[in-house]
Design brief:
This protein is of the alpha/beta class and 323 residues long. It contains 13 helices and 12 strands. It is globular, with a radius of gyration of 19 Å. The two termini are 15 Å apart.
Length: 323
C-alpha cells in the first residue's frame, strides 16, 4: 500500500516525473474520483458539443494525482455505459500500466445507476447482477483494493421513506434485503472474489439491515460519511459508526453533510466540502489516526471542493496532512 502508519516506506520515492515526486503527501491515503461523469463531460464538451476524440482517460488520472495529498483513484464503473468507449479492456489496461508507473492505488465503485439488487422483479435483479459481475471482471487488471457496492438502490430507498409505521417500514426493508442477499451471493459465486474485497456502502437504507448482509457474507464496509450525517443510513455520529464498524471498514467516502428538520420539512445535504456541514472533522480525522486506519479515503467531491476541503483540514487538523 502507498502509505502505512507506523513508518513503513511509501512507494512515492520511486516515481518517475517531478510533478509527482514534488507534490505534498499526507499521513492519510486520500483519493478522489476523476472518472466520474462530470470530469469526463468537462473534458469532452466543447462549446456545448461533445467531442469524444478529446477524451483521455490517462490524463484525467494523471491530473487528479497531481493534486496535493492524492494517492488513490476510485474508478466509477457506471461511466462505462454513460460515456461510450470510456471504459474498455484497452483503457483498463492503460490504467493498470499507469499504476505501474506512478504507484498509486485503485478502488472501484461498482455500478448503481438504474440498478436494483434488492428488486423483487427478477428481470431487473438479474440485469443488475449481470452488470455488477461484468464490471468486477473488467476491473480485475487494476487489482483494486476494494469494490464498493450498493446492495440497495433507489427503489429500496423510496420504500425506506414510506410514511408508514416504523415496524411496517422495517418489515418491507427486510423483505427487500432478502433479495439483495440473493444478488450478493450470486455475485460472489460467479466472480469467486474474496468477499472482504467487496465493501458494502451505507446508502439511503437502514444500515442495521445492510449490516446483516455484511456479517452473513463476510464482506467489508465502505463508510460514506455524508450519507450518515444527513441521516440516510442512521442517526449515530460518524465517530460512533466508525468505532462500531472499524474492523470491517475497508474504505471511506469523505464528504460533509447535514440533517435539518423545519416543521414538517426535512432538509438533507451531503456531498458538500468539509466545513460546510455538521461533521466534527478534527475529531473524526484524529480518530482515524489514533486507530491507525490505512484504507483509501476517497473525496466524493469535485476537484475545487477537494481543494476547499483540504484547506479546511489544514486549519483544523494540519497534523494529518504531514507525513
Amino acid at each position: 500500500m502507498s502509505f502505512v502508519l507506523g513508518g513503513i516506506q511509501n512507494r512515492y520515492g520511486d516515481l518517475k516525473g517531478g510533478n509527482y515526486c514534488q507534490r505534498r503527501r499526507s499521513l492519510m491515503r486520500f483519493g478522489l474520483q476523476p472518472l466520474d461523469f462530470k470530469p469526463i463531460v468537462d473534458q469532452i464538451l466543447v462549446d456545448g458539443v461533445p467531442d469524444f476524440s478529446r477524451f483521455n482517460i490517462g490524463e484525467l488520472v494523471r491530473a487528479a494525482l497531481r493534486l496535493d495529498h492524492m494517492s488513490a483513484i476510485e474508478v466509477t464503473m457506471d461511466i462505462e455505459r454513460m460515456v461510450p468507449g470510456s471504459l474498455t479492456p484497452a483503457s483498463i489496461e492503460s490504467l493498470a500500466r499507469l499504476k505501474e508507473e506512478i504507484g498509486h492505488a485503485y478502488t472501484v465503485h461498482l455500478p448503481f445507476y438504474s440498478l436494483e439488487l434488492a428488486s423483487f422483479n427478477e428481470y431487473v435483479r438479474e440485469g443488475s447482477i449481470e452488470t455488477v459481475v461484468r464490471s468486477i471482471k473488467l476491473a480485475e487488471p487494476l487489482e483494486p483494493e476494494s469494490y464498493v457496492l450498493h446492495t440497495t438502490g433507489s427503489l429500496a430507498a423510496e420504500f425506506s421513506r414510506l410514511n408508514l409505521p416504523q415496524g411496517m417500514v422495517t418489515l418491507i426493508c427486510s423483505y427487500m434485503a432478502m433479495f439483495a442477499a440473493r444478488s450478493l451471493e450470486e455475485i460472489l459465486t460467479r466472480t469467486e472474489i474474496d468477499p472482504r474485497k467487496i465493501a458494502l456502502e451505507n446508502v439511503e437504507f437502514p444500515f442495521e439491515i445492510t449490516q446483516e448482509l455484511v456479517e452473513q457474507y463476510n464482506t467489508s464496509i465502505c463508510f460514506d460519511t455524508g450519507h450518515l450525517l444527513t441521516h440516510y443510513s442512521g442517526t449515530e455520529s460518524v465517530i460512533e459508526f466508525y468505532k462500531r464498524h472499524q474492523d470491517r471498514i475497508l474504505e471511506i467516502h469523505l464528504h460533509d453533510g447535514s440533517y435539518e428538520k423545519r416543521d414538517d420539512i426535512v432538509i438533507h445535504r451531503d456531498h458538500i466540502p468539509l466545513g460546510r456541514g455538521t461533521m466534527p472533522v478534527r475529531d473524526f480525522l484524529r480518530e482515524l489516526v489514533r486507530s491507525r486506519f490505512n484504507g483509501p479515503i476517497i473525496f466524493e467531491l469535485r476537484n475545487a471542493e477537494v481543494k476547499e476541503s483540504l484547506d479546511y483540514i489544514r486549519r483544523v487538523a494540519p497534523e494529518v496532512l504531514t507525513r
